[in-house]
Design a protein that fits this description.
- The protein is α/β, with parallel strands linked by helices.
- The protein has helices at about 10-55, 170-185, 190-200, 205-215, 215-235, 270-280, 305-320, 325-340, 350-365, 375-385, 405-420, 425-445, 450-455; strands spanning about 145-150, 155, 235-245, 250-260, 260-265, 285-290, 300-305.
- It is about 45% helix and about 10% strand.
C-alpha cells in the first residue's frame, strides 16, 4: 500500500491536484458501489425465487403433463401386496375354424385290453395342436413369349397378365407386410432386411425396402385425403401434437380426429398455420383440445378444453400446498368427468340440471381467495378458460377430455423412441399418411395389415359395424 503524501510538503497546486484525484476516485467507487448493490439485489431476488422453487413438488405424470415414461414409481416392500387367492385353472379355447380334423378312435380298452373297435365312440378329450408351415416365398416366373409376325414381318410379344406386369418384383401382400413391420412394429430397415432373409428366405436390400415405401406414397396419400375430407365434413374435431425428429431437426406430429376417423400431419412447427392449413376454409362447430393457443378459437360455436389436464394441474397445486381452491376444483372436475361417462343413461333435462349445478359450484370456488401462489395461478387459469369447461354437457358427442388425442399419438411416440424417426421429409409425410390409415382402421375394428392391403389395392376402408356419432 502506497503511503499518503505529507500535505505539509505540498504547495497549493499539488494539493488541488490531489483533491481532484481523490474526488475522481471517490466517484468511481460510488458508481461501482451502485453496480454492486444492483447485482446484489438481483441475486437476492433470484435466490428467493429459487428457494420458493425448492419448496415446490416435483412434476410427475399425476400432477402435470409429464409423459408416463418419465415418471418414477416409488419402491415398496416386496410383500406389501397381499397374496391373491388362487383362481380356477384355465386353458386355451379351441380354435373356431381348425385347418383339419383328426378324430382318433380307440381300438382297445386301456384297462382290460378288450377290443372296442365296434363300439360307438364319442369325443371325450378334444384339444388343438397349433403349428405354422414352413414359410417360403411364392415366386412366379413370367416369360412373355414372342416372335416374328409372318404377316408384317415385325417382332411381337405377348401382353403381360393382369397383376403380373413388369416393374417391381414384390407383390402387394409382401409390400403390405413390409409396411406393417416397419410402421407398426417400428423395425429398422437393417433389421427388416435381416428378418426377411431369416424368416422368409428372401433377400431384400435396404434400398429395395426404401423403394417399396416410396412407391406406396400415392396410395396412402389418397387414402389420407379421403380421411381428411370425412373429418372436415363433420361438426366436431379433436387435436393434439407431439414432437418428432426429421433429419436433424425437431418437427411436430399433429393428429386431427373424431369418432372413426383420424388424420395425422407432420409439420416443422406447432403454430396456428398448421391448423389453418389442415382446415382450409372449413371451421367445425366444436373443437376439443388442450389450452395450447395454436389450437384455440377455431370452432364456430364452442370449444371444450381438456379436463384431464386441469385435474392434473389441480393436483400439482394441492401438492404445492394449496388447500383453499385446488382440492375443491379437482373434486368438481372429477365429478364432471364421471357424469360424462354415463351421459347415455341420462335425459337431456338431467344433463342441463347437472350443468347448472356444476356452474354454480365453480362460481363459488372462484370467489375463494387462495393463500398459496400455486392456487392463485391455477385460479387465473380457470378464469381464462371458464366458458370452455362444461361444453360436453350440451352435446353428447363431445368428450370432456382430450385423452383420445393422446391415445392416438402414443404409437407415434413409441415409434420415435425406438427408431429415432426419419432421415427425409418424404418418409415423415408417408408415415403420417400410413398412421392415418392404421388409426382410422383401428377405430373401425379393422386389423392394421388388412387396412394396409386395402389401401395398396386402391380400396376404401369399410365403415365400422357399430357407428359412432360424428357430430
Amino acid at each position: 500500500m502506497i503511503p499518503p503524501p505529507d500535505l505539509a510538503l505540498l504547495d497549493s497546486a499539488a494539493k488541488d491536484a490531489l483533491i481532484r484525484t481523490l474526488i475522481e476516485r471517490l466517484n468511481d467507487l460510488m458508481v461501482r458501489l451502485e453496480v454492486l448493490e444492483a447485482e446484489n439485489a438481483a441475486l437476492r431476488k433470484e435466490n428467493s425465487e429459487l428457494r420458493v422453487k425448492l419448496d415446490l413438488p416435483p412434476k410427475t405424470p399425476d400432477n402435470s403433463s409429464t409423459p408416463p415414461s418419465q415418471g418414477h414409481k416409488a419402491s415398496g416392500a416386496a410383500d406389501a401386496k397381499p397374496k391373491a387367492k388362487p383362481h380356477a385353472g384355465a386353458h386355451r379355447p379351441l380354435h373356431p375354424n381348425p385347418t383339419r380334423r383328426c378324430d382318433v378312435a380307440a381300438s382297445q380298452c386301456q384297462h382290460c385290453r378288450a377290443d372296442v373297435s365296434g363300439v360307438v365312440q364319442t369325443p371325450v378329450h378334444t384339444y388343438d395342436r397349433i403349428e405354422i408351415p414352413e414359410i417360403k416365398p411364392d415366386v412366379t416366373r413370367v416369360a412373355l413369349l414372342g416372335g416374328m409376325c409372318p404377316c408384317c414381318a415385325k417382332p411381337f410379344k405377348a401382353a403381360p397378365p393382369a397383376g403380373l406386369e413388369p416393374g417391381s418384383p414384390f407383390g402387394p401382400n409382401l409390400r403390405a407386410f413390409a409396411i406393417y413391420l416397419r410402421f407398426t412394429q417400428a423395425i429398422s430397415f437393417e433389421r427388416l432386411s435381416r428378418l426377411f432373409s431369416d424368416l422368409l428366405g428372401l433377400e431384400i436390400s435396404e434400398g429395395a425396402l426404401v423403394n417399396m415405401l416410396d412407391d406406396s406414397k400415392q396410395a396412402f396419400a389418397q387414402a389420407a385425403s379421403l380421411i381428411r375430407a370425412r373429418l372436415l365434413a363433420g361438426t366436431i374435431l379433436q387435436s393434439d401434437e407431439t414432437t418428432v425428429r426429421v433429419g436433424k431437426r425437431t418437427w411436430w406430429t399433429w393428429v386431427f380426429h373424431h369418432a372413426e376417423d383420424a388424420c395425422f400431419v407432420i409439420h416443422p412447427n406447432r403454430s396456428r398455420a398448421v391448423v389453418e392449413q389442415f382446415l382450409g376454409q372449413h371451421r367445425p362447430d366444436f373443437w376439443v383440445s388442450d389450452r395450447l393457443p395454436a389450437q384455440m378459437n377455431w370452432a364456430k360455436k364452442d370449444h371444450q378444453v381438456c379436463l384431464a389436464h386441469l385435474i392434473r394441474d389441480a393436483q400439482y397445486a394441492i401438492d404445492a400446498g394449496d388447500t383453499a381452491f385446488a382440492p375443491g376444483l379437482r373434486k368438481l372436475l372429477s365429478r364432471a368427468c364421471k357424469i360424462a361417462g354415463r351421459r347415455h343413461q341420462l335425459a337431456d333435462a338431467t344433463l342441463r340440471a347437472y350443468a347448472y349445478k356444476l356452474d354454480a359450484e365453480l362460481d363459488a370456488l372462484l370467489r375463494i381467495t387462495p393463500a398459496h401462489g400455486a392456487g392463485n395461478k391455477l385460479q387465473g387459469v380457470i378464469k381464462g378458460c371458464r366458458r370452455y369447461l362444461f361444453v360436453f354437457l350440451a352435446n353428447r358427442a363431445i368428450p370432456p377430455t382430450n385423452n383420445g388425442s393422446e391415445q392416438a399419438l402414443r404409437p407415434c411416440v413409441i415409434f420415435r423412441k425406438v427408431t429415432n424417426c426419419f432421415r427425409s421429409e418424404w418418409a415423415a409425410h408417408l408415415y403420417a399418411d400410413i398412421r392415418s390409415v392404421i388409426e382410422t382402421a383401428r377405430r373401425r375394428t379393422i386389423a392394421a395389415l388388412q387396412a394396409i392391403r386395402l389401401t395398396l389395392n386402391g380400396l376404401h376402408l369399410p365403415a365400422a359395424l357399430a357407428h359412432h356419432p360424428s357430430g
